[in-house]
TrEMBL record, chain A:
<dbReference type="GO" id="GO:0016887">
    <property type="term" value="F:ATP hydrolysis activity"/>
</dbReference>
<protein>
    <submittedName>
        <fullName>Phosphate ABC transporter, ATP-binding protein PstB-like</fullName>
    </submittedName>
</protein>
<dbReference type="InterPro" id="IPR017871">
    <property type="entry name" value="ABC_transporter-like_CS"/>
</dbReference>
<dbReference type="InterPro" id="IPR027417">
    <property type="entry name" value="P-loop_NTPase"/>
</dbReference>
<dbReference type="GO" id="GO:0005524">
    <property type="term" value="F:ATP binding"/>
</dbReference>
<dbReference type="GO" id="GO:0005315">
    <property type="term" value="F:phosphate transmembrane transporter activity"/>
</dbReference>
<dbReference type="InterPro" id="IPR005670">
    <property type="entry name" value="PstB-like"/>
</dbReference>
From TrEMBL, chain B:
<dbReference type="Pfam" id="PF00528">
    <property type="entry name" value="BPD_transp_1"/>
</dbReference>
<dbReference type="InterPro" id="IPR000515">
    <property type="entry name" value="MetI-like"/>
</dbReference>
<feature type="transmembrane region" description="Helical">
    <location>
        <begin position="188"/>
        <end position="209"/>
    </location>
</feature>
<feature type="transmembrane region" description="Helical">
    <location>
        <begin position="111"/>
        <end position="132"/>
    </location>
</feature>
<protein>
    <submittedName>
        <fullName>Phosphate ABC transporter, permease protein PstA-like</fullName>
    </submittedName>
</protein>
<feature type="transmembrane region" description="Helical">
    <location>
        <begin position="216"/>
        <end position="237"/>
    </location>
</feature>
<dbReference type="GO" id="GO:0005886">
    <property type="term" value="C:plasma membrane"/>
</dbReference>
UniProtKB/TrEMBL annotation, chain C:
<dbReference type="Pfam" id="PF00528">
    <property type="entry name" value="BPD_transp_1"/>
</dbReference>
<dbReference type="InterPro" id="IPR000515">
    <property type="entry name" value="MetI-like"/>
</dbReference>
<dbReference type="InterPro" id="IPR035906">
    <property type="entry name" value="MetI-like_sf"/>
</dbReference>
<feature type="transmembrane region" description="Helical">
    <location>
        <begin position="106"/>
        <end position="129"/>
    </location>
</feature>
<dbReference type="GO" id="GO:0005886">
    <property type="term" value="C:plasma membrane"/>
</dbReference>
<comment type="similarity">
    <text>Belongs to the binding-protein-dependent transport system permease family. CysTW subfamily.</text>
</comment>
<dbReference type="GO" id="GO:0055085">
    <property type="term" value="P:transmembrane transport"/>
</dbReference>
């Protein structure tokens, strides 16, 4: 097995099961026979040198890689929803439903060029929520969960691009949280931020552990030490 | 390489630059020298009060107003015809088409974009002949036929700019909404098209310019020297570029020739304005891209 | 319902694309069908090699093909060195301020209406050519191709410039580090690297000048004769279409314009295939 887990886990605490996953990009194999389990309500950090397919691995958990040209995957990913494990690559499994239950935050903050409010409410719009009051409440809740409410409550209708980098990243986290996902994937979420902004996000993630299963790709070993319950090391391919 | 060669190459390049600038300034300078004197309101409206002419209360007989109105209607009709088709096809090419469909389609759009405008005009003309023979003998080359032909002419431009501005969006922008559970069409509608709007828009503005300046298409499909402001889609009409072409060979007195210079200046002005507008829209895009992380 | 909607959306976007493809084919088919009477019985070859003499029932368009070729190749011949010089000036040799100015001017020139080049050509260039050579009316191959060269240069310059600017910076740094002068950098590094772009610019401009109507129509004199010198008057395929269209559309003379259309269509297809070929060679 190319990856090592530092903790033993019991089957009934497992949220995500990955079995013999292979991944190719432009005919180059990036991931080889990856089999991993992720425990519910923990923060799992994925570490390792760049080029070992850590970010790619995250995209196999919400099938986002399918939108990347020249990529190919083999293997099995199962996520537990409502007590049963479901194969997320099964034909009957709704892709949009998956993306709504498995949130993702990217390396650089990527707010859309609309207002703060609309950014956070955007996933609700996609999911077809119409009730304005309900949307308003959910936006407030998500912004509070992301530690952003106090800073933006008076300027919700300003452009999201006016926010600082750290605020933008928390906005993206709020946006990912608004659909109450069960899994949250973060791809080096603090690497484009300064240390303070990074620290805020770390505390925030520790808080979020109560609500979802968090998988974070990180380059900073000190950060991993502060927040991770489990560490997985992706080694260089042989 | 010895010094002499270097100096020669340098001198040659500078000479080229100067020739190009010289030639274009000669053309524009000559145009203004001959035509600046007639750039007055009566060049456009003749003896008719401008407001009456614009409200179509009175015919303008000796001004450029009918030609300008013709060009305006023509451009509106063809751009509004080509726009929905071009947008849809461009979005399809960028977001859906794959494999052999993509190859065949993009090859055929390349061909369509390169077809000389006179051939498009000939096609429009033969459609008119075809309709005249088989459907109604009231159909002759007219504003409708010209508008359609011009729409065919600019359709590939609109397809290509739409496709290009969508395809050049960064992968990050593409994935944002998908990661939030957007379907393919939601992603196009809420993120991709709004984000590439200025690119598409500047393409459309350039297409407007192309419609306004094209002469070859309209001379085969219904533009005439004297028609007044077009009364219906099925009537013949005047247009600015055709008027300039017509005057160049058929002028009878210095006054008409001077009007030709005036018309050229106006057409040049319109095209330059559209060109600058497209440029500004693009610039706006670049500036927004800077703020958009 | 969601899936159904997605399918419908894709269909709604697909149909206009298909329609545009059909349009491309329809233009070809129209030319073919309307031009058929002249080409029946294997007379297509006769048509494109024969001479034009309607009085004797001969509708050969060979003179027009020659005229088109002459004007297009001569204009590319003029435009190529001019564009190389200007592109070098903009990308490498000129100081920044002047380079930006020239770049914007060239961009703006692409927006100048063709009919204006023709109009000014008649009253400015033609008299000059007439006086200079003291030969005929001045409406000739030379006048048309000089003006056409000016029309196609901006496109050519822009394509050249873009391919110059695409040369990887590391190559340029290498030349700089070896103490190369700007001219050496241009001749030994940039131009060899940009060969593909240069070919594309030339082919693209060739396509534009083959398809141009107004300049040839207004400046080349439109005489139907195989050209002997650059001071002869000729009629291009495009001008022929424009001039004949006014006649009765049942006549055989009229049918010949569709043959012209077909040949222009063919030229265009050839140009596109060549462009594709050059492009694919570059990416390998």
């Amino acid at each position: 097995m190319p990856c090592t887990t530092h903790e033993t886990m019991k089957e009934n605490h497992i949220k995500i099961k990955v079995r013999s996953l292979d991944f190719w990009y432009q005919n180059r194999q990036i991931l080889e026979h990856v089999s991993l389990d992720f425990t519910r309500h923990t923060i799992t950090a994925i570490v390792g040198p760049s080029g070992t397919g850590k970010s790619t691995f995250l995209t196999t958990l919400n099938r986002l890689w399918e939108n990347i040209p020249d990529a190919q995957m083999k293997g099995r990913v199962e996520i537990e929803f409502d007590g049963t494990f479901r194969d997320i690559y099964a034909r009957s499994f709704s892709l949009t439903q998956l993306r709504r239950s498995v949130g993702m935050v990217f390396q650089t903050p990527n707010p859309l060029s609309m207002s703060i409010y609309k950014n956070v409410a955007f996933p609700l719009k996609l999911a077809g929520y119409k009730n304005r009051k309900e949307v308003g409440n959910k936006v407030e809740k998500a912004l509070k969960q992301a530690y952003l409410w106090e800073e933006v409550k008076d300027r919700l209708h300003e452009k999201a691009s006016c926010l600082s980098g750290g605020q933008q990243q928390r906005l993206c986290i709020a946006r990912a949280l608004i659909l109450e996902p069960e899994v949250l994937l973060l791809d080096e979420p603090t690497s484009s931020l300064d240390q303070n902004a990074g620290r805020i996000i770390e505390t925030l993630l520790l808080d979020l552990r109560e609500r979802c299963t968090i998988i974070i790709v990180s380059h900073y070993l000190d950060q991993v030490g502060r927040i991770a319950d489990t560490v997985m090391e992706f080694p260089l391919k042989s | 390489m010895n010094r002499l060669w270097e100096t020669l190459i340098k001198a040659f390049s500078w000479a080229c630059g100067i020739i190009l600038l010289g030639a274009i300034s000669c053309i524009i300078g000559y145009l203004f020298m001959k035509g600046a004197g007639v750039i007055r309101l009566d060049l456009i409206f003749g003896d008719t009060p401008p407001l009456d002419a614009i409200l179509l209360k009175r015919q303008v007989l000796d001004g450029l107003f009918p030609a300008m109105a013709g060009t305006f209607f023509l451009v509106c009709f063809s751009v509004f015809t080509a726009l929905p088709l071009g947008l849809a096809a461009g979005i399809y090419m960028s977001e859906y088409a794959g494999g052999s469909i993509r190859r065949v389609f993009s090859f055929s759009f390349d061909i369509l974009a390169g077809i000389p405008s006179i051939v498009i005009g000939l096609f429009g003309f033969s459609i008119a002949v075809f309709l005249h023979r088989h459907f109604s003998d009231r159909i002759f080359p007219c504003l409708l036929i010209s508008g359609l032909s011009l729409a065919f002419l600019v359709l590939p431009y609109i397809i290509r700019t739409t496709q290009l501005s969508l395809e050049t969006l960064p992968a990050r922008t593409r994935l944002t909404a998908l990661a939030l559970g957007a379907t393919r069409f939601q992603n196009i509608r809420y993120v991709l098209v709004p984000q590439s709007l200025s690119g598409i828009l500047s393409g459309v503005v350039l297409a407007v310019g192309r419609c306004a300046e094209d002469t070859a298409v309209i001379m085969l499909t219904g533009a005439v020297a004297m028609a007044g402001v077009p009364q219906s889609l099925l009537s013949s009409y005047e247009a600015l570029p055709f008027y300039i072409y017509y005057i160049s060979s058929q002028y009878t007195n210095p006054h008409e020739l001077a009007t030709g210079y005036g018309a050229s200046i106006i057409l040049l002005g319109i095209c330059t304005f559209l060109f600058l507008a497209a440029f500004m829209i693009q610039k706006g895009l670049a500036r927004r891209a800077l703020y958009y992380p | 319902m969601n899936r159904q909607f997605e399918k419908t959306a894709e269909m709604v976007l697909f149909l206009p694309a298909l329609l545009s493809v059909i349009l491309t084919l329809a233009i070809f088919v129209f030319m073919l069908v309307f031009g058929l009477p002249l080409m029946k019985g294997g007379r297509f070859f006769e048509l494109i090699t024969g001479s034009w003499s309607p009085g004797h029932g001969m509708y050969g368009i060979q003179p027009m093909i020659m005229g088109t070729m002459a004007i297009a190749s001569l204009s590319v011949f003029f435009a190529f060195p001019l564009s190389m010089g200007c592109a070098s000036l903009i990308s490498v040799l000129a100081p920044r301020g002047f380079s930006t100015f020239l770049r914007h001017t060239v961009r703006l020139m692409t927006g100048v209406p063709t009919v204006i080049y023709g109009f000014v050509g008649i009253f400015l260039l033609v008299p000059i050519i007439r006086e200079l050579f003291q030969n005929g009316s001045g409406f000739c191959i030379l006048s048309a191709s000089l003006m056409l060269a000016l029309l196609i240069s901006p496109t050519m310059i822009l394509v050249f410039m873009e391919s110059f600017d695409r040369v990887p910076k590391s190559y340029l740094d290498a030349a700089d580090a070896l103490g190369g002068t700007p001219v050496q950098k241009l001749v030994y590094v940039i131009i060899p690297q940009a060969r593909q772009g240069i070919w594309m610019g030339v082919i693209l401009s060739m396509g534009r000048s083959l398809g141009d109507t107004l300049i040839a129509l207004m400046l080349a004199g439109n005489a139907i004769a195989t050209p002997g010198s650059v001071l002869d008057s000729v009629r291009t395929l495009t001008a022929h279409i424009a001039l004949v269209i006014a006649s009765d559309y049942e006549s055989l003379e009229f049918k010949s314009v569709f043959a012209c259309g077909l040949i222009l269509y063919g030229f265009n297809a050839l140009i596109i295939v060549m462009l594709r070929y050059v492009e694919s060679k570059g990416t390998q």
